[in-house]
Design goal:
Elements lengths: L1 H7 L7 E5 L5 H10 L4 E6 L2 H14 L5 E5 L12 E6 L8 H6 E12 L5 E8 L5 E9 L13
Parallel strand pairs: 1-2, 1-4, 2-3, 4-5
Antiparallel strand pairs: 5-6, 6-7
Length: about 160
């Protein structure tokens, strides 16, 4: 799934990427590798224990300078560094959170699982046009943990 999502994001050298759901840090590391030393990944995680795990793993793998970990509610994003050329959400939302759309750059892409708390869910690719129009494309069925937060599911 990590490879499928990275490919669907059409990542390029030098891009600024926001990831929602740091987990172990593995997916952020793959993105950091693809965007190269001129790019940067900002990953938001709501659980302190996962932030610590991801930080340790990214430090050991040598990605700590290219990946910024933020403890917080991923459903509101990280507006301090917006806009992002790519946004990746690694938990399923009931719908696409508006703050994430607002933080997506013009001509940017976002991947987000959308659907019920557990099933059914669809992986949706969001493309924001040069005019700010949001185009949605369904990439198929998936199964992710629920996105919990202000613009997601309630805990």
């Amino acid at each position: 799934m990590v490879a499928i999502m990275d490919e669907a994001l059409e990542l390029e050298e030098g891009m600024s990427v926001m990831e929602i759901g740091a987990g172990s840090g593995y997916h952020a590391a793959t993105i950091a590798e693809l965007v190269g030393p001129r790019g940067h990944v900002f990953t938001i995680e709501r659980l302190e224990s996962l932030v610590q795990l991801a930080r340790r793993n990214l430090d050991l793998a040598g990605y700590s300078e290219r990946v910024t970990l933020v403890l917080g509610d991923g459903t509101v994003g990280y507006p301090d560094r917006a806009p992002y050329e790519r946004i990746l959400v690694t938990a399923a939302a009931p719908d696409i959170p508006r703050p994430l759309v607002d933080q997506l750059a013009l001509e940017g892409l976002m991947l987000i699982p959308v659907g019920d708390r557990f099933f059914p869910q669809e992986l949706v690719r969001v493309r924001k046009t040069r005019d700010g129009v949001v185009d949605r494309r369904n990439l198929g069925g998936v199964a992710f943990v629920p996105l919990v937060g202000q613009h997601g599911f309630r805990n």
